[in-house]
UniProtKB/TrEMBL annotation:
The keyword Chaperone applies. Residues 1-42 form the Ubiquitin-like domain. Keywords: Chaperone. SUPFAM superfamilies: BAG domain. GO terms for cellular component: cytoplasm. This is Ubiquitin-like domain-containing protein. It comes from the Eukaryota. The lineage of its organism: Eukaryota, Viridiplantae, Streptophyta, Embryophyta, Tracheophyta. The keyword Chaperone applies. It holds the Pfam family BAG.
């Protein structure tokens, strides 16, 4: 209730009653506070700093997740080109060496982008999955290059 009036986030508040800090999650009536009792509301800088650090960590994870998703879409586009080259070679056709080199370079660029993403937990697992996927396509291109030679 005090957040609206003070503009102070509820997790950044410290409530004192009779000179003692109250548990922030406890109900006032359960803590012995009666009607018309005086309470002191203070800003808790430690809680505020902790909350801001957690918010930054969550924002960083969100940005990393978006980066991995963006790279995944780029890899999807390159994967269709790899599949097309693979189909040509499977049918006994020849492909232009420059196309294979260009695709390999594009995939390696995506791999470098993935490597630059610092991530933890689920995002790290997504990044690893995409790295393996890119490596598989590069290996496929290596096989195409060998068959084409």
């Amino acid at each position: 209730m005090m957040s609206e009036k003070t503009g102070l986030h509820h997790e950044d508040q410290k409530v004192l009653y009779k000179g003692k800090e109250m548990d922030s999650k406890a109900f006032l009536d359960m803590s012995g506070v009666k009607d018309r009792s005086k309470l002191v509301l203070l800003e808790d800088p430690d809680a505020q700093a902790k909350r801001l650090i957690e918010q930054r960590r969550a924002d960083k994870a969100h940005r990393a997740s978006k980066s991995v998703s963006r790279i995944s879409l780029d890899v999807d586009k390159l994967a269709t080109k790899v599949s097309a080259l693979e189909a040509i070679v499977r049918k006994g056709g020849k492909v232009v060496e420059a196309d294979v080199v260009a695709l390999t370079e594009a995939l390696m660029t995506e791999l470098v982008k993935l490597d630059a993403i610092a991530a933890d937990g689920e995002v790290k697992a997504q990044r690893r999955l995409q790295e393996k996927r890119v490596q598989k396509y590069v290996e496929t291109l290596d096989v195409i290059r060998a068959k084409n030679a």
